Amino acid sequence: MLINKDDATLLVVDVQEKLVPAVQDAVGMVARCRWLIAVAIDLGLPVVFSEQYPQGLGETLPLLSALAPQAAVVEKLHFSCMEGQCLPDSLMSRRQVIVCGMETHVCVLQTVMGLLQEGKQVFVVADAVSSRSLLDRDYGLQRMRDAGAVLVTREMVLFECLRVSGTPLFKQMSQRYLVGDQP
After folding, report:
1. Which residue intervals define the domain Isochorismatase-like in the entry (predicted)?
2. 18 belongs to the catalytic site
């Protein structure tokens, strides 16, 4: 199964001001999420940001939310976006959900499990998720994969959405996201 850009949404889970400093490779994870959000915007994919208890943990990092000012921002107290019933119809009406964010073994995992139970095709961007410990990250990814989520990388998302080279869009995207130093 490949990602279909006309039927996919990017869900950015809980990349919030007070949580980010606690996770492994925070700077790199944020840079890779930023890259992925920019790709999604350029490809026309809807973007949704979730926030776990923003009154205490802060909002989504402004450098991410500024990339997608029209994106839905949903608040939750449940670790799972699905249990919190906060995901907008614009996301739920699409068959595929691409997921990045944190923490891999808590909010990302529980949200992914709920999306799978709803029959969604879920793609977890392995290089754009993080946890406080690498062990938790690795086991979170393994558990999601075992449950039926597809583990992908950012470049896999880009190339599956593009599908073909030799087009003006491919040239634009490859120059913007594949040339030079990338996060």
Report:
1. 9-155
2. no
pLDDT at position 144, please? 98
Residue 174, burial from CB neighbour count under 10 angstroms (0-12, 13-18, 19+)? middle
Whole domain around residue 154: which residue ranges? 5-177
**Residue 112 lies inside a defined structural domain of this protein:** yes
Reply yes or no on whether 107 is catalytic: yes
> Which residue of the set 76, 86, 120, 161 is catalytic?
76
Read off the CATH number of the domain in which 19 is found.
3.40.50.850
- Per residue in 11-58, pLDDT (tens digit) is 999 999 999 999 999 999 999 999 999 999 999 999 999 999 999 999
Catalytic residue among 33, 86, 100, 107: 107
In this structure, is residue 40 part of a structural domain? yes
Per DSSP, the residues of 74-141 read EEESSSSTTTTT---HHHHTSSEEEEEEE-IIIIIHHHHHHHHHTT-EEEEEEEEEE-SSHHHHHHHH
Q: Is 33 a catalytic residue?
A: no
Q: Which amino acid is at 181?
A: D
Quote the pLDDT of residue 94: 97
Number of domains in the chain: 1
Statement: residue 183 has pLDDT above 90: no
Percent of the chain past pLDDT 90, that is, above it, reads: 96
